[in-house]
């Protein structure tokens, strides 16, 4: 009745069509306002995100002149979306209780972690660090065995190959050297082994320049046996080389040994050690017996672990003796169907050398050995 009364006052009765139009137009405006309010309040500014995505797709199809612009714009958009997700989660934290706080934070972390996992530059566990310890020698002494045995310790990460940084590749710089190392956690030790360091005159100074606190491991062996093993390895690669006797002596009848031959010179341990002691304390150098490494690997590795400040985890239960190779091997790990033994080049049969030649070399090495025993405070019983 009120509507008819008002309409009769405002609009003449003869103009009923105009009255109906005004009514329908008013209702339409109200409906449009209601729809717009619902859309705005529900946060449907999402089309702007789709617009950004559309721009990225559109720019990808443009010429090379837009390549840099495309890359920069889309990267910023992606970061903005991650920040938007984090902002929404922070909003949830302010509106909910303790349980909701944890849930919202976890969702935020899931979003960020997912974004990072799709990024090829996402951080990995640990860092590449310069080594804390080095196996510096000696060749054919048992360095590979020590490396393979000690690296099963959970607190040791070791480079498998020999980098030869301090003798051949020093000009590449420390950052190049660091880049070769495996990633380690703060609680882990980084190691590498290059046996030629021990006989390289510049190596002690260079290692000291890297860190004066570096721990050094030297695996030593009866110098006569070591020389024969060295020759056997070379002969397997170069079958046409002269005989062991011809290389070892300048004058066999007079017993004059050729100390310029590397296979002989390496075994003069005291001469090389004196060079190292100019830069490192004797307490920083641990000597492993190559002979006891074969007969008692757990005992030798126990002392290595002590020297490195590690808990004694590697014990007798990790080893068994391979009679075919004449070497200890690591027992089969849970993740493997085979035990771990050293390669075919380890434990090969030595070349037969005349007994008199061996005795002459023992006499030659005896004074060097005695001085070495006195210097390190241990008798290796090679004589």
Automatic annotation (TrEMBL):
Top-rank lineage group of the source organism: Eukaryota
SUPFAM superfamilies, from UniProt? P-loop containing nucleoside triphosphate hydrolases
Residues where 3'-phosphoadenylyl sulfate binds: 140-144, 221, 229, 346-350
Q: What class of enzyme is it?
A: transferase
Mention one GO molecular function. [heparan sulfate]-glucosamine 3-sulfotransferase activity
Which ranges does the record mark as transmembrane? 21-40
Active-site annotation? 140 (for sulfotransferase activity)
Predominant localisation class: membrane
Instruction: Look up keyword Glycoprotein and say if it applies.
Output: yes
**Cystine pairs:** 329-341
Q: Does the keyword Transferase apply?
A: yes
E.C. number:
2.8.2.-
Q: How does it sit in the membrane?
A: Single-pass type II membrane protein
| The name this protein goes by in its record | Sulfotransferase
Which species?
Phoxinus phoxinus (Eurasian minnow)
């Amino acid at each position: 009745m009120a509507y008819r009364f008002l309409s009769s006052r405002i609009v003449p009765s003869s103009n009923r069509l105009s009255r109906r139009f005004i009514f329908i137009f008013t209702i339409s405006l109200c409906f449009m306002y209601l729809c717009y309010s619902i859309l705005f309040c529900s946060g449907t500014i999402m089309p702007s995100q789709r617009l950004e995505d559309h721009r990225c797709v559109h720019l990808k199809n443009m010429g090379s002149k837009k390549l840099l612009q495309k890359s920069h714009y889309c990267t910023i958009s992606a970061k903005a979306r991650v920040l938007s997700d984090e902002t929404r989660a922070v909003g949830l934290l302010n509106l909910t209780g303790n349980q909701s706080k944890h849930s919202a934070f976890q969702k935020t972390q899931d979003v960020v972690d997912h974004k990072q996992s799709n990024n090829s530059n996402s951080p990995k566990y640990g860092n590449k660090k310069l080594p804390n310890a080095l196996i510096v020698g000696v060749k054919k002494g048992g360095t590979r065995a020590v490396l393979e045995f000690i690296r099963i310790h959970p607190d040791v990460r070791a480079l498998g190959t020999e980098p030869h940084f301090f003798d051949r590749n020093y000009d590449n710089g420390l950052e190049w050297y660091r880049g070769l190392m495996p990633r380690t956690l703060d609680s882990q030790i980084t190691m590498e082994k290059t046996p030629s360091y021990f006989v390289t005159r510049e190596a002690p100074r260079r290692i000291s320049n890297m860190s004066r606190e570096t721990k050094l491991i030297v695996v030593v062996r009866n110098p006569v046996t070591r020389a024969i093993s060295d020759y056997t390895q070379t002969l397997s690669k170069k079958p046409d080389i002269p005989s062991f006797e011809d290389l070892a002596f300048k004058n066999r009848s007079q017993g004059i040994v050729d100390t310029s031959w590397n296979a002989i010179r390496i075994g003069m341990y005291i001469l090389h050690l004196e060079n190292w002691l100019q830069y490192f304390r004797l307490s920083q150098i641990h000597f492993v017996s190559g002979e006891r490494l074969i007969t008692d690997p757990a005992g030798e590795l126990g002392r290595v672990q002590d020297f490195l400040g590690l808990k004694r985890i590697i014990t007798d239960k990790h080893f068994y003796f391979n009679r075919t190779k004449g070497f200890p091997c690591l027992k089969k790990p849970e993740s493997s169907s085979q035990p771990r033994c050293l390669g075919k080049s380890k434990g090969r049969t030595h070349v037969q050398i005349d007994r008199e030649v061996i005795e002459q070399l023992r006499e030659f090495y005896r004074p060097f050995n005695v001085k070495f025993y006195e210097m390190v405070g241990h008798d290796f019983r090679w004589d």
